Amino acid sequence: MILLDRVTKTYGSNEPALERVSLHVEPKEFVIIVGQSGAGKSTLFKLLTREEKPTSGKIIVGGMDYDKLRDKDIPLLRRKIGVVFQDFKLLPARNVYENVAFALEIAGLPTTEIKHTIPKVLDVVGLGGKEKNYPRELSGGEKQRVAIARAIVRQPKILIADEPTGNLDLKHAWDVIKVLEKINQFGTTVLLTTHNQEIVNYLKRRVVTIKDGKIVSDHAVGKYKI
Amino acid sequence: MRLKKKAEPALKQDHKFVTLERIVRNGFVNFGRNIWLAIAAIAMMGITLTILLFAVVANATFSHTISDITSHIDVSVYLKDDVTDGQRTNLIENLKGIENVQAVAYISKEQALKNYRAQNINNKELQAAISETDNPLPASLVISPKDPNKLETIKEYLDKPEISSLQSDPTSYSGDRKAAIDKIAKATDFFRQAGIVGIIIFIIISILIIFNTIRMTIFNRRDELVIMRLLGATPGYIRGPFIVETMLYGVVAAAISLAISGALFAVASSTLQASALGLLDIKYSGEYFKKNLWLILTTQILAGIIIGAASSAVAARRYLKLK
Does A49 touch chain B (CB under 8 A)? Predict the structure, then answer.
């Protein structure tokens, strides 16, 4: 589902942010990536969403070879991957419904279908009834769940969540993690970065640890250790 | 619950019509939701368009005054009394053949006398100095030039020996009068060109101001653009609503600018009825504005739309790079 083969990313003339990273994620897997800030997690995500190009190495996601992507394919690629960010990245001038609908609108889905789909997704993330609220009226946890709803509404095969709990208190963090688990059960491959030890240890999933741009450990049922 | 497996195929093809409709609708919705940003931008655009409009009307008034002046510049050719009708007709035809000649009017000896009497109606002595039986005034041809700056060609023709032999006196375009006419013609020419250069400068400044205003509004919302990009919206889909929105700014700004200018001209022409303020004829300005209202309205709106759309297209581009 996700394949990185000896991927290196260097910004300018600095030390490489990622160095010869190889990672293989199977469909329906739930993989946690841990590492301190600056370890290269964010770079990894930017490579997957094609915000950055690797300096060298190969990336294949969902059968798409990033070397062969043309510029006009990039929007299509991003629609196939659900993304969740630490800072939510909701559209402030749109309410909950519209934020989620946006993901479908850009894909050109008919309005009737959008109307039909969104209530279901909001139910999954536990936000039924909040359709008309604007992001500023929501708590951090709610905002993040809107972002997740937006990421999954297109039924991506892959969901990548970059520190989704980073800005949340523990209770809301758990809400978000539970939603991610649920989505994984539906069959979506989930890639999660976090440095919350409790969450890592609770999930009992595959844990990949990155340090100084290199993968230092990869355990099928991992524990948090840096 | 289980989401239906339906979203997938839509990823391949964009439904053009649905997309366009959404772009336009989102443009209007954004306009409403960012109303304060919109008001600020519209105010800036409105003021700029108004200033530009004033510059255009002032220029039109100015060139009206100038053509008023230059239309009074002509060349009189005084004919000897013994010039026959045939010679005269021939001369007129030949003059009309000269490129810079707009029209040639013939003033007979009798007409010249009438004009003289009319001009000096209050001066008995001057009237008495001249009598019907002994009319010393020559018949003349009044040549109106197309371009008062190019009287030389006419002058050259008139100075040919066979032509000047028909003339009783030197033409009016000689000596001091020639110098005065040449000066006026040069000055008006300069003012006309200055007016055009002024308008061009105003247009450039206006475009820059509007562009910068739009750039600021987009800068304010750059996060939105980046988010849309990360979610896989195509650059066209992201930019579209912004362009629609700024086109709306343009329309509203043009309407406001026109309302302000219309009101000002109405007030000005009713209070400043003395009409002439030096070289600026306010009454003419008002008339010009009224006469060209539709042209001005269309141009304003089109300018607003085009400058707005182009500015937002350019300003949004840097946030839309896909990488």
Answer: yes
B302 neighbors B255 (Cβ within 8 angstroms) = no
Of residues B66, B50, B68, the one with CA closest to residue B187: B66
> What is the structure's pLDDT at B7?
42
B66: left (phi over 0), alpha (psi -120 to 50) or beta: alpha
A50 touches chain B (CB under 8 A): yes
| Domains of chain A, earliest start first | 2-13+24-219 (3.40.50.300)
Contact B239/B71 with Cβ under 8 angstroms? no
pLDDT: which is higher, A151 or B55: A151
Question: Which residues neighbour B162 within 8 Å (Cβ) at sequence distance 6 or greater?
Answer: none
The region that residue B241 occupies, defined by phi over 0 for left and psi between -120 and 50 for alpha, beta otherwise, is: alpha
Question: What are the pLDDT digits (tens) for A62-111?
Answer: 888 998 888 888 888 898 899 998 888 999 888 999 999 999 988 888 88
3-state SS class at A118: helix
Please give the residue of chain A at the shortest CA–CA distance from B227. Answer: A89
The angle formed by the CA atoms of residues A109, A89 and A27, to the nearest 5 degrees, is 65
Whether this prediction's pTM lies above 0.95 is answered by: no
Number of Cα atoms under 13 Å in the Cβ half of residue B4: 10
Among B4, B19, B232, beta carbon nearest to A76: B232
Residue whose pair of structure tokens reads 């023709």 in the numeric block: B157
Q: Is A87 on the interface with B (CB under 8 A)?
A: no
3-state helix, strand and coil shares in percent for chain B, rounded to the nearest 5: 70, 5, 20
Backbone angles phi, psi at B39, to 5 degrees: -60, -45
Q: Domain B75-171 - what CATH class?
A: alpha beta
